[in-house]
Design brief:
This is GNAT family acetyltransferase YiiD. With 62 residues, the protein is an alpha+beta fold. It is 26% helix and 26% strand. The longest helix has 16 residues, at 10-25.
Length: 62
């Protein structure tokens, strides 16, 4: 079963950004850090985790 939730700790938020970079930016040869932007501070971040707590998807909205 999968669970949709908000990152709760700094470690989870870092994992969120790492996943976002690996899935969306790295394949386009974009540098680390390009996965973040000025809107992140205002966004509502969410992540999908499996039963073991592994990230399977991330996303955010305003």
């Amino acid at each position: 079963m999968y669970h949709l939730r908000v990152p709760q700790t700094e470690e989870e938020l870092e994992s969120y950004y790492q996943f976002r970079w690996e899935m969306l930016r790295k394949p386009l040869h974009q540098p680390k850090g390009s996965e973040r932007d000025a809107w992140d501070a205002m966004a509502h971040h969410q992540m999908v985790v499996d039963e073991e707590g592994n990230l399977v998807a991330v996303g955010g909205c305003m």
